[in-house]
Known about the structure:
Blueprint: H1 2-44
Amino acid sequence: MTSSQELPATGFPVLAVGAAAAAVTGLGGVLKRLARSGARTRSKE
Length: 45
């Protein structure tokens, strides 16, 4: 019984960290795209 109760306790933090990492990487990708598009528009002007 203890093992089944410990799995969720250790699983949720891992999922939270994974979700946070995915969000950070996603935001980083968007920021990079915005930076690139901004640089392109600035260079054109």
